[in-house]
Design brief:
By secondary structure, the chain is mostly helical. The radius of gyration is 28 Å and the shape is flat. The N and C termini lie far apart (84 Å). The relative contact order is 0.08.
C-alpha cells in the first residue's frame, strides 16, 4: 500500500513539473514571457511622476492642478504628436522634403508656445486660494477655456494625421490605377 502511495506522489510531482516546463516552453516558443499580469485601471488618477512626455515640453509644476481627464487628454495629444513627428521623419528619410503648411505651422506654435503659456495661466488662476464667488467663477471659466484649447489642438492634430493618411491612400489608388492600366 505504501508503495502505491509513493508511486502516486512521484507521478503527481512529475506531472506538475513537466506540465510547468511544457507551459514555459510553449510561451517561449511563441515569444511570450510568462509572468504576472498587471491590471491597469484607465480611470485611476495619474501621477505626474509616472507621466512621460515624448514631444511636448511641459513644466510639471503647471500640471499639478490639472484634472485627471485633461492630463489624459494631454497624453493623447503627446501620442498623436509622436505619430505625426514619425510621419514627418519618414517623409524626410524618403527624400521627400515636406512643405510646411499654414496648419502645420499653427499647430507647432500651439503645441510648443501657446500650450505651455495656457497651462501656466491656468495654474496661476487655479492656485489662488479664495472663497470669493467671483474667483470660483473664474476658476470654472479657466477650466472650460483650457478644455476648449486642448480640444482644438487635438482636433488640429487629428486633421493633420487624417490628411497624411488620405495622401498615402491616394498614392496607393494612383499606383493601383497605373498597374491596372498597363495590364490591359
Amino acid at each position: 500500500m505504501s508503495v502505491l502511495i509513493g508511486v502516486g506522489i512521484v507521478t503527481t510531482i512529475t506531472t506538475i513539473y513537466l506540465g510547468k516546463k511544457g507551459w514555459q516552453a510553449l510561451h517561449k516558443a511563441v515569444g511570450i514571457t510568462p509572468g504576472v499580469l498587471t491590471y491597469q485601471d484607465d480611470q485611476a488618477p495619474l501621477s505626474l511622476s509616472a507621466v512621460t512626455w515624448r514631444h511636448l515640453r511641459l513644466q510639471k509644476k503647471h500640471l499639478q492642478r490639472l484634472p485627471n481627464d485633461q492630463l489624459r487628454q494631454l497624453q493623447r495629444i503627446d501620442d498623436k504628436v509622436s505619430r505625426y513627428q514619425s510621419y514627418q521623419k519618414t517623409q524626410q528619410a524618403d527624400d521627400k522634403t515636406p512643405t510646411v503648411t499654414e496648419s502645420q505651422f499653427v499647430l507647432e506654435k500651439l503645441l510648443y508656445t501657446r500650450l505651455p503659456d495656457t497651462l501656466a495661466s491656468y495654474d496661476y488662476l487655479v492656485s489662488i486660494d479664495s472663497a470669493d464667488l467671483s474667483q470660483t467663477e473664474k476658476k470654472a471659466e479657466a477650466s472650460e477655456l483650457l478644455q476648449q484649447v486642448l480640444d482644438h489642438i487635438e482636433q488640429r492634430l487629428d486633421a493633420l494625421l487624417d490628411q497624411a493618411q488620405t495622401q498615402h491612400l491616394q498614392a496607393l489608388r494612383v499606383m493601383k490605377n497605373y498597374v491596372e492600366s498597363h495590364d490591359r
